[in-house]
Design goal:
The protein is of the alpha/beta class and about 200 residues long. The chain has seven helices and six strands; from the N terminus they run αβαβαβαβααβαβ. The chain has a six-stranded parallel beta sheet with strand order 3-2-4-5-1-6, sandwiched between helices. Strand 2, helix 3 and strand 3 form a beta-alpha-beta unit. The termini are far apart. About 30% of the residues are buried.
Length: about 200
């Protein structure tokens, strides 16, 4: 200190060990990220995040709810990305929102159980539950069960939840929430879905 009581230029103050530890713990804490909204690109965004994580050496597990088709991302992961595991839990057909078939409920529950095992295994740095928000909204999976899973996930695990209709309770628990908003969609012009764009 100078006589005037000011710190002299270039003086290094000792680090506060408690603060340093807290900052390090915060930097290593796994995030909960929600990607919701009525626009196209939620699953695409999550897979982009997965690709970035693979590039950094992460291992990723993705459970796709309410999907049974061989989507391009599923095929690419199987063929080119050994650090990215994708599993599907659904049929290649639409689910009735107000009256889901028993098979749709059963498949969603099976998918959630598999995802829970992946989360608890310690093998993965990131888990993505694709279309989980829709599965909850359609009453295929209880909201309370998802809330417990979020609250009890391993501290270092990044968890990404996609799909329309994200529940306000899940939004409240999340660290980051992005809304994909539809401004314009080619379906409105009569352009059908096609490989490489929709699947």
């Amino acid at each position: 200190m100078t006589q005037a009581g000011k710190k002299s230029v270039g003086t290094v103050q000792p680090a506060n060990p408690k603060k340093t530890t807290a900052v390090a713990a915060l930097a290593n804490r796994g995030l909960v990220i929600v990607i919701t909204g009525n626009g196209k690109g939620k699953t695409t965004s999550a897979f982009g995040q997965a690709l970035r994580a693979v590039g950094q050496g992460y291992k990723i597990f993705i459970m796709q709810f309410m999907k049974g088709r061989d989507y391009g991302e599923f095929l690419a992961a199987e063929k080119y990305l050994p650090r990215l595991t994708v599993r599907r839990s659904g049929l290649d057909s639409f689910v009735m929102r107000d009256k889901p078939a028993p098979v749709d409920i059963e498949l969603a529950r099976q998918g959630l159980e598999l995802a829970k095992k992946a989360i608890a295994s310690g093998k993965y740095n990131m888990v993505i539950l694709d279309e989980i928000n829709v599965a909850i909204d359609f009453n295929l999976i209880p909201l309370e069960e998802m809330i417990r899973l979020i609250k009890n996930k391993p501290p270092g695990l990044d968890l990404i939840l996609t799909g329309r209709y994200a529940a306000k309770e899940i939004i409240k628990l999340a660290d980051t929430v992005s809304e994909v908003k539809e401004i314009k969609h080619h379906y409105a012009a009569g352009i059908k879905d096609r490989a490489g764009i929709e699947y």
